[in-house]
Write a structure and sequence with these properties.
- With 339 residues, the chain is of the alpha/beta class.
- The protein is built from 11 helices and 11 strands.
- Helix 3 packs across helix 4.
Amino acid sequence: MAKYTFKDFKSDQEVRWCPGCGDHAILAALQRVLPKVCEEKGIDKEKVVVISGIGCSSRLPYYMNTYGFHSIHGRATAIATGLKVANPELCVWQATGDGDSLAIGGNHFIHAIRRNVDLNIMLFNNRIYGMTKGQYSPTSKFGAITKTSPYGTVEEPFNPGSLVIGAKGTFFARGMDADLALNQDIMLQASRHHGTSIMEFLTNCVIFNNGVHSEVTDRETRADRTVVLHHGEKMIFGKEQNKGLVLDGMKLKVVTIGENGVTEDDILTHDAHADNIGLHMMLADMKYPEYPLALGVIRDVDAPTYEEEVANQLEQVKEHSKVHTVDELLHSGSTWTIE
């Protein structure tokens, strides 16, 4: 098997995202992590496929030196599902936006999650429709002033994490566009996961929604407003690494280590593999200012995949079928010979 570098996954196409767009960083992370993915899976890069729908993020297949498919609005998940079921040996990645996957593509999105198809879905969330010039999206904040909500939106936004876990998703992670190291780690863990892996990346649209995530992405305050979760490690955060999360009854609570008798032992240990939908949902739902925003892999649990179940079903049917070939089918039942 060939030994790849990130250059092997860069296409010769000019990247046409706006300068400063957060999508550039997600592309760079994917190109850098795929050599490791191929090495771990023991596959050539011809087995890697990138599928997309419509939107700024959906330009991504053009910038990858892999097989790919730029599909239509909201339908990338359906096409990726068909591809994976038809050829389970493929390593399928999907690029989609908050509009593409959570609006017109919402049904395809949640049913791929419910079925647990082995796909790696990268959801670029800039809380706006960027390609169509600044309309509000399903993740835009309540009250957001946009081209289609000049007086502010009157809709509560989707939280992708809540949606994924509510659909019994087996993998959900969250990263920020500029955090290249964390994003590569998320992508690598997603590729190892057996089932639908949803990765939400908070991206900045410098033209139509600049600074939308700044309350948690700003370098000066990020450490106090986010917690990076690692399986098996304490949920500790803050510039001084002295804040943490505990359970207070049925709710999460932020505490300070050293105050009111709180010690590091009291802080919750993250278990991404426990099938605890309640706690994982609470972690995915956290938002500033009441809580830090949870980053990293929040949920990673095992479950049978859709394509495996389909393949097993076909084998069982063939095992008990009286017909095994097309020739046998044509000669089954009532037949006659014309002399």
